[in-house]
Amino acid sequence: MSSSPPPPPLLLTCDSLVTSYLLYRGYTSTHTSFLSESAHSPDITNPSKIVDGLFAAMEGDNFWTLYLRVKELFDAKWSQWEIHLAKCWLVTKINCNSHTEIHDFFSSPPITLPSSFRPWYSIVYVRAPEKDSAFSSYFMGSFRENLKIGVFNFLNSVIKGVELPRILFLLRYMGSDEQRAVRSEIEGLRGKSRTLEEENEGLKRRVKELEGHVEGLVDVVVGEIEDDNKKLWRDDVKRGEMVKRAVASRGNVEEFLRILRSEEEEEGGGAL
Q1: Could you tell me the pTM of the whole model?
Q2: Distance CA 195, CA 200 (A)
């Protein structure tokens, strides 16, 4: 599974996640090593930066360290390019009069030199190597530029074939247009949910108000019913008292019945 290199912001996000995870797990030594390597390792996702870094390092004293680091990272077939890079480095050092570094290189070569490289052992002793037929073509600016283009194309093809870690695919997916649309939809639904919650709270308050109003009506109705019951009770008491008086005064039932019929006729007449 191959893919184009992720953009630098995505790598920075991934690095931040890794450092946070290492600290969370207590891997302090690994965290320190990670920060150190991150600061000094080349950006292997950008072939242009790697090539510029390699050729710029030829002017200094850390070219071979950087080259071996890049070679180790990609673990690819560099043999077709490293001999040309060695020749370009030697030409650069000749132009800088850095003969000591050239002697050190041949004394302990950082790479395996083929037998065809033997003529270059004498370059430091040639009076004007830029004019010598064996070396003159390498002193031309076109050699350096063509070499840069060749190394760039080589690295570009290698990088495109590198399988990206799953965390980068995850981060890239989370930043895709599809995920942004999903997140936007979720935010919209959250807004609708908040609106419905507010409406629900308003309805609850209205229900409480109505409950209070109903309770007031119930109190009024109950009060009226109680008043009617009290009136009926008083009427019953009054009737009972009258019966008692009638019976006490006359001592017969006929008088009681007469009084009762009289009350009923009075109530009937009042109703009419």
Answers
A1: 0.53
A2: 9
Domain of 153 in residue numbering reads as 44-175
Contact by Cβ (8 Å): 31, 19: yes
Contact 181, 175 (CB under 8 A): no
Q: Which residues, in sequence order, are CB contacts of 31 under 8 Å at separation 6+?
A: 19, 22, 23
**Contact (Cβ atoms closer than 8 angstroms) between residue 172 and residue 6:** yes
Q: What is the pLDDT of residue 272?
A: 43
Tracing tokens 């630098």 back to the chain, one arrives at 8
Do 160 and 2 form a contact (C-beta atoms < 8 A)? Answer: yes
Measure the CA–CA gap between 261 and 244, rounded to whole angstroms.
15
3 state DSSP class of 46: coil
pLDDT for 159 equals 79
Query: Comparing C-alpha atoms, which of 86, 48, 80 is closest to residue 67?
Result: 86
Write out the two tokens for 239: 């009737």
In the listed set 175, 204, 238, which residue is the last one of a domain according to the structure? 175
201 assigned to some structural domain: yes
Q: Are residues 255 and 160 in the same domain?
A: no
Coil, strand or helix at 222: helix
Residue with token string 């050092």:
93
- CB neighbours of residue 14 within 10 Å: 17
pLDDT digits (tens, 9 = 90+) for 133-184: 999 999 998 999 999 999 999 888 887 776 667 776 676 666 656 667 766 7
- Unique residue bearing structure tokens 């639904």: 189
Q: Are residues 151 and 187 in the same domain?
A: no
Q: Give 100-113 pLDDT, tens digit per residue.
A: 999 999 999 998 89
